[in-house]
Write a structure and sequence with these properties.
single chain, about 240 residues, alpha+beta, tt1808, chain A, 2 domains, 6-stranded mixed sheet, 3-stranded mixed sheet, 7 helices, about 25% strand, globular
C-alpha cells in the first residue's frame, strides 16, 4: 500500500446541497466551510439550502413579523428575539427559523445559548414565512416543509407555539402545543392571542394586508393587560 505523502493536501470539504442526508455534526462542518452561504437547515436528517429570497413574497412579510415581535420584546424584559438563528434542536434537526422568541435561560426559559453562541433546545415561539420564491411550485414545497417535517420536529422537541405565514395563500396559522399535539389558536374578534407570552396579540387580517399601524395598535392593547405586567414581574424574579 502506498502511503500518502506528508505534504499531500487534505480533501476539500464537500459543499452542502439540498437533499443531502447528514448527521448534525457533518452538517455544521460543511456549513462552517461555506461562509458565503446565508441559510441552510437540517430537518429530520435532510439538508435544505434556501433559494434567493424575493422582496414581496418573503423579505417584506419577514420584516413585518419582526417589527411586531420586536415591539413586544422591547416591552417585555427577560425575553429575546432572534432573526434566522441556528437552533440545535436534536441530532437530526438544526433549523434556522425566520424568527424565534424565547424566554432567557436566567428567567426560566427552556432554551439556552451554547458557548459558541448557538441556540440549544426549544425556543418558546418560532415563526416561519412559507414563501421564498416567485415560483408558485417552490412556494408550495416550502409550505409543505414548514407544515410537515419541520412542524413535526418542532412539536416533538417541545416548541410551545409555532406561527406559519403562507404568503401566496394569504393565510396565517398559529399553533399551540397542547398535550403533545399542535392545535390552532382561536381567532377572536380578528385577533389571535398567545398563551405563552401574555399580551402578544396579533390582528391577523391587518398583518396579511400589510396594515402595520393597526397591527401595532392591537399589540399595544395587549401590552396594557394586567397579565402582561404580571408576566414581566415573574420574569424579573
Amino acid at each position: 500500500m502506498v502511503k500518502p505523502s506528508p505534504q499531500q493536501k487534505p480533501l476539500p470539504i464537500p459543499e452542502l446541497e439540498s437533499g443531502d442526508r447528514l448527521s448534525r455534526y457533518e452538517f455544521e462542518r460543511r456549513y462552517n466551510a461555506m461562509p458565503h452561504l446565508k441559510k441552510a437547515e437540517l430537518i429530520e436528517g435532510v439538508v435544505y439550502v434556501a433559494a434567493a429570497l424575493r422582496f414581496r413574497s418573503h423579505g417584506q412579510p419577514h420584516g413585518n413579523i419582526i417589527g411586531w415581535l420586536w415591539t413586544y420584546q422591547v416591552a417585555t424584559p427577560g425575553i429575546a428575539l432572534g432573526i434566522e438563528p441556528t437552533v440545535r434542536l436534536d441530532l437530526d434537526n438544526e433549523p434556522q427559523p425566520d424568527a424565534v422568541l424565547l424566554i432567557e435561560e436566567r428567567c426560566g426559559g427552556q432554551a439556552r445559548l451554547s458557548e459558541d453562541d448557538y441556540v440549544e433546545g426549544a425556543p418558546e415561539l418560532v415563526a416561519e414565512i412559507a414563501a421564498s420564491s416567485a415560483a408558485f411550485a417552490l412556494a408550495c414545497a416550502e409550505s409543505t416543509l414548514d407544515l410537515g417535517d419541520k412542524k413535526r420536529a418542532y412539536r416533538r422537541n417541545g416548541i410551545k407555539e409555532y406561527i406559519v405565514w403562507q404568503v401566496f395563500e394569504q393565510k396565517l396559522d398559529w399553533f399551540y402545543l397542547q398535550d403533545g399535539e399542535y392545535v390552532p389558536l382561536p381567532v377572536e374578534d380578528g385577533v389571535i392571542r398567545s398563551r405563552v407570552f401574555p399580551g402578544l396579540w396579533l390582528a391577523v387580517e391587518d398583518l396579511l394586508a400589510g396594515n402595520m399601524t393597526e397591527v401595532l395598535a392591537v399589540l399595544q392593547k395587549g401590552l396594557t393587560l394586567t397579565e402582561h405586567k404580571a408576566f414581566v414581574q415573574q420574569l424579573s424574579k
